[in-house]
UniProtKB/TrEMBL annotation:
It is found in: Peroxisome membrane. One of its GO terms (cellular component) is peroxisomal membrane. It comes from Mytilus edulis (Blue mussel). One of its GO terms (biological process) is peroxisome fission. This is PEX11B.
Length: 191
């Protein structure tokens, strides 16, 4: 109940965040981030209705509103994961192209026009993936956080069956990542 009370009004913050992301130039980021923020806002509004019902302020069908809330949360997480996947694929694609360009680029020998191929061995796919993950930690952390959170609404909606221990462990992982991004803002994914 305390957590829900502390989130009261956060839905307005998500609406304001959505208004800021409408102006992004990348259409995929614009769509996924803006829609995700709006879905998070609606999720919290439904959550506020459940909170008010639990306090006895209003009478509401708790199960119905909880289902709607979980659906909005699931939609938001799905959009976040689409955005993460798009970011990761873009990063890997750009790195692969950069690796290819480095391999094609020759070196001039003594000012002559002859080229010699660089002697460095090209990076494999796994090496490129590791390099991209290491150099783009905010995207990787956000992806892991969203994957961890995804289990909760899926379980609430009855799509999967997960034990309380697994839910708690994934919630702990998600919270630890959230704390890390607050503690070290360079780990926070923007925009």
């Amino acid at each position: 109940m305390t957590r829900k009370l502390l989130r009261f009004g956060k839905s307005l913050d998500f609406i304001l965040s959505a208004l800021k992301t409408i102006h992004l130039s990348d259409p995929v980021l614009k769509l996924t981030i803006t829609m995700s923020k709006l879905a998070q806002s609606v999720f919290l509004i439904f959550d506020h209705i459940i909170f008010a019902h639990n306090l006895g302020i209003i009478k509401a069908d708790k199960e119905k509103w909880s289902r709607y809330s979980s659906q909005c949360w699931l939609f938001s997480l799905t959009l976040n994961l689409l955005r993460n996947s798009y970011d990761i694929l873009s990063i890997i694609s750009n790195e692969a192209k950069a690796q290819e360009n480095r391999q094609r680029r020759g070196q001039y020998v003594n000012g002559g026009i002859e080229h010699s191929v660089t002697s460095r061995k090209p990076m494999g796919r796994v090496q490129i993936l590791k390099k991209c993950c290491y150099e783009n930690q905010p995207v990787v952390l956000d992806f892991v956080k969203n994957m961890s959170d995804l289990v909760l609404p899926l379980n609430s909606l009855g799509k999967i069956k997960v034990s309380g221990g697994i839910q708690g462990s994934l919630g702990l992982l998600s919270s630890a990542i959230g704390i890390a991004t607050v503690w070290s803002p360079i780990l926070k994914l923007v925009p």
